[in-house]
Design brief:
Layout (H helix, E strand, L loop, with lengths): L18 H18 L34 H6 L20 H10 L1 H19 L7 H8 L3 H7 L12 H12 L8 H17 L5 E2 H10 L5 H11 L2 E7 L2 H6 L10 E7 H19 L9 H10 L14 H12 L16 H9 L4 H12 L2 E5 L6 H12 L4 E5 L2 H14 L2 H4 L5 E3 H6 L16 E4 L7 H9 L6 E6 L12 H8 L4 E3 L6 H11 L13 E5 L3 H20 L6 E5 L8 H12 L14 E7 L2 E11 L2 E6 L4 E4 L7 E3 L2 E3 L8 E8 L9 H8 L2 E9 L4 H8 L9 H12 L1
Parallel strand pairs: 4-8, 4-9, 5-6, 5-7, 7-8, 10-19, 11-17, 11-18, 18-19
Antiparallel strand pairs: 1-3, 2-3, 12-13, 12-16, 13-14, 14-15
């Protein structure tokens, strides 16, 4: 869709509100919402989360957090599949198999779909929009897309890549002079659009004043009326949050009788997901009952009685017992260390013995915390993963069905190695204890589901917990049965999730559950450098074996040259780390030293070619991103009409069809967000002179921490690097989780 460049439609006449009048109307709207809306939203479960215990993925996911200059590009990208989708072939969606067979015979649905595409394309063309948007419009609005766009032209703003000025131009093309800037249809489209842009930056909600300011920039005549219209439409939900600390002081909260509040607006799906997550967290803690020590007499009585047996009611239908036996056989044998029959419930004495036998004081503290609580937070760097591994071994030794879930296949494999090194015979026998989070939720890996749809486990340790976004975290909690123990483990210093929310940080700040901070440091010069960054200090470190090298560059061009030289020659030659085990990291995709430029330069040196297959050649290093925040490194083997044939780092192979090729990028250079959950033997961090807006302590900490053996920093950002580490902890995110947690906790106390 072309940019009209004309902004909002011309006004339809009438008195224009002054800035003071607009501010007064927004303030009055806030008061009205404060008096009529409770803090929590309540209501039904968010769409996409499914019923409790289901494996349904979030209905809609957001793009990777936009680096500076990247917001428009990411807003244009179509929504990616959920990371919790099974990796294998999935069954048919939409119509049933029988309906699909009928459709194949009659061809009627295909004809209806084609007719809908043609009608939608005609409406788009009539309004001056590209007909290429028709498939996206039909996917979004169904076969009535043409009529929807004809009667509500601003609905086009919900399609990928469409911006407000373009939607205004489309409305003028269809409605002519009736397309006024204060049209209620425009308001209903612009308010959700502003919130969707905030989602790309990680927010789950925005202050009402920020939304009003955004509408003012978009030339909305009456921002307060626009917000009210969007709320009445149901796509946006308001909530109230009491301010505390510096925020309360800044708001003039000196009156103890009336604590200051702010009004937040959120998209319905995110507001409901945040409520659901808080409710499930509180419920998990409220329904937890720790085990009790069993006396000798009780133990002898239990042994004499034998194992508990499930009984079939006397009025059950004939054959019911056999059906239950068949069901049990279908579930398969339990894993070694997993409870059979009644769940294991070790008492304090057993837990204390396991804690005393732990290999470190931090592991002991973690085991003791888990013994007494349903929800435990565990913080620490890469070396601290030995502590969750010790917890899993201890829990399995106590008869619990304990599993860990990592963000990536690399995280899964490294955790499995840690467990094998410390868990003894069980681990050596090959008993799985860890899977990826995506495989756990989809059923591809892990313990599977119990008959009630819940995950069949007693303890779940989620590694890389800061990467959980709002909807995925809600899905995890929905999958846990009452009484399950949950440990969220991760490094609080690293970047947050690709999607909206900051779940781990909010839980740490809310202090609603025990938090165990690891005392196990990351060793070596890289660990020392990263630890210093984590506390706001960028200090030189002693690196006798060139573990850390800092190079300066006068500009982005020199930075690219030096980075590619390190990748292709210096690091392999001097340190023996092959180029395929070295990654280039940079703040964004665009710019003079972004991933596009770096990847082009690396390809020219390592695998020159014309890009015969959609810009790729056999031998190219790529990353496959099936969902936001999920990155799978791979290498192109070949390509044909069926697609690109890839080999992934774990040795598996897959063909990416042409329709999905857009999710591939060259993979010599990545952003720090793309690198989350993975580490490389060598990493080269490239900081061009225009990197300053993207740099935060959190970004630097994450990028530097991707290196295992060697870190090179090619630095052209001047003082911006040290300033970011010292003064800019993280990009702010507005969320509701802390407030909703407090409300839910108060309601059950």
């Amino acid at each position: 869709m072309s940019d009209t460049g004309n902004g909002a439609p011309e006004g339809a006449g009438g008195a224009q509100l002054t800035p003071e009048e607009k501010a007064a109307r927004v303030a009055q709207l806030r008061k009205d919402m404060l008096s009529t809306r409770p803090q929590g939203l309540g209501g039904a479960r968010p769409e996409g989360l499914g019923p409790r215990g289901s494996a349904a993925a979030p209905a809609q996911r957001t793009a990777e957090p936009a680096e500076p200059g990247e917001q428009a590009e990411q807003a244009a990208a179509p929504a990616a599949p959920s990371p919790v989708a099974p990796s294998g072939p999935s069954g048919p969606s939409g119509p049933t198999v029988a309906a699909a067979a009928t459709a194949a015979t009659t061809g009627a649905p295909d004809e209806q779909h084609d007719d809908a595409l043609q009608a939608t394309a005609a409406v788009l063309t009539a309004g001056g929009a590209p007909a290429d948007l028709a498939p996206a419009a039909v996917a979004e609005f169904g076969e009535g897309a043409a009529e929807r766009l004809r009667t509500d032209p601003w609905a086009v703003l919900g399609l990928p890549g469409v911006r407000p000025e373009q939607a205004d131009g489309f409305a003028r093309g269809l409605l002519g002079p009736d397309a006024g800037p204060g049209d209620a249809r425009r308001a209903r489209a612009l308010v959700p659009w502003l919130l969707e842009q905030a989602v790309l930056r990680g927010h789950s909600a925005l202050d009402l004043a920020e939304v009003a300011a955004g509408l003012e920039r978009l030339r909305m005549p009456d921002p307060a009326a626009a917000i009210q219209s969007a709320v009445e439409d149901g796509r946006v939900l308001p909530s109230q949050e009491e301010l505390t600390g510096p925020e309360a002081h800044a708001a003039g909260g000196e009156d103890d009788d009336e604590p200051p509040t702010r009004t937040l607006l959120a998209l319905e799906r995110l507001a409901m997901a945040e409520d659901t997550l808080a409710e499930e967290l509180v419920k998990l803690m409220a329904t937890f009952v720790p085990g009790e020590d069993v006396g000798e007499a009780d133990a002898e009585e239990a042994a004499a009685a034998g194992p508990e047996q499930e009984t079939v009611p006397s009025d059950a239908a004939p054959g019911a017992e056999e059906q239950e036996d068949d069901s049990a056989e279908a579930e398969g044998p339990g894993e070694p260390g997993e409870a059979v029959g009644a769940p294991a419930a070790p008492g304090p004495t057993a837990w204390e013995a396991a804690a005393a036998a732990a290999p470190s004081s931090s592991a002991t503290a973690l085991i003791r915390a888990v013994a007494d609580g349903a929800l435990v937070l565990h913080t620490g760097g890469e070396a601290s993963r030995a502590e969750p591994a010790a917890l899993i071994a201890a829990a399995r030794g106590l008869g619990l069905r304990a599993w860990a879930a990592a963000w990536t296949d690399q995280g899964r494999d490294s955790f499995a190695a840690l467990h094998a090194a410390g868990a003894g015979a069980e681990a050596q026998a090959g008993t799985p204890v860890v899977t990826t989070l995506a495989d756990l939720l989809s059923g591809v890996g892990g313990p599977g589901r119990a008959p009630d749809g819940m995950l069949a486990l007693d303890l779940l340790v989620v590694l890389d917990a800061p990467l959980l976004d709002l909807e995925l975290a809600a899905t995890v909690l929905e999958s846990l049965a009452d009484g399950t123990r949950l440990v969220l483990s991760g490094d609080p210093g690293q970047l947050w999730s690709a999607g909206p929310g900051r779940i781990f940080a909010d839980l740490l700040a809310a202090k609603v559950c025990p938090a165990v901070a690891s005392r196990t440091p990351d060793f070596g010069p890289i660990g020392e450098l990263v630890s210093g960054v984590g506390i706001g200090e960028l200090q030189p470190v002693d690196a006798p074996d060139k573990e850390v090298v800092i190079l300066t560059a006068k500009d982005a061009g020199e930075a690219v040259h030096r980075a590619v030289q390190l990748l292709t020659d210096s690091i392999p030659r001097a340190l023996g780390i092959p180029a395929e085990q070295v990654v280039l990291l940079t703040p964004g995709h665009g710019g003079a030293a972004g991933t596009r430029v770096l990847n082009a330069a690396a390809k020219a040196r390592l695998n020159p070619g014309p890009g015969r297959f959609g810009g790729f050649d056999p031998g190219d290093r790529v990353v496959d991103s099936p969902a936001p925040g999920v990155t799978h490194p791979a290498r192109v083997l070949d390509a044909d009409a069926t697609g690109l044939h890839l080999e992934y780092v774990d040795g598996s192979r897959r063909t990416v069809p042409p329709a999905e090729a857009a999710r591939l990028r060259h993979g010599w250079a990545l952003t720090a967000h793309q690198a989350l959950g993975r580490r490389w033997p060598g990493a080269v961090v490239v900081l061009p002179e225009d990197a300053a807006p993207a740099l935060t302590r959190q970004w630097v900490y994450t990028a530097f921490g991707r290196a295992e053996r060697h870190l090179s920093v090619v630095h052209a950002a001047g003082p911006a690097l040290a300033q970011a580490v010292a003064e800019r902890p993280a990009q702010s995110r507005t969320t509701r989780l802390r407030a909703v947690l407090a409300e839910n906790a108060a309601s059950v106390s």
